[in-house]
Amino acid sequence: MAPGRRVERVAALIRRELSELLINGIRDERVHQGMVSITTVEVSGDLQHCKIFVSVLAEDEARKEVMDGLQAASGYLRGELGRRLQMRRAPEVVFQLDRGLEKGTSVLHLLGELEREREVKGTPPSSSDDTESPDFND
Predict the structure, then answer these.
(1) Is there a domain that residue 132 lies in?
(2) pLDDT digits over 112-135, tens only?
(3) pTM for this entry
(4) Range of the domain at 83
(5) Who is most buried in 49, 78, 86, 120, counting CB within 10 A?
(6) Are the beta carbons of 65 and 53 closer than 8 angstroms?
């Protein structure tokens, strides 16, 4: 198996196992203050480091608590990954907040507001030959 393919496979396995552990394995109440989703898992080529990108649906303060709880549980999660995936040396686990979904939701909200404004004001006139344009050739 090619090294890049092996890293991808390990990343997919880690994502699956961590998703299960987020639901049933972590007892820290801070982690359960928001809805946590694993968006991406990046594993280094030597399989010794693993960066987990998570999206957290919660208010800012609760989001910070969730991230603190995940960091506190990283040692436990590393041990569980090593046991479940039968790895000689489990990768060091680091969590990073992924704000991609949050930004997407913000953009959709802004687009919705623009659409409502257009409906209230009416559709802006389309450019046509009837409108006078300044003549800069004078």
Answers:
(1) no
(2) 888 888 888 876 555 555 555 555
(3) 0.68
(4) 3-121
(5) 78
(6) no
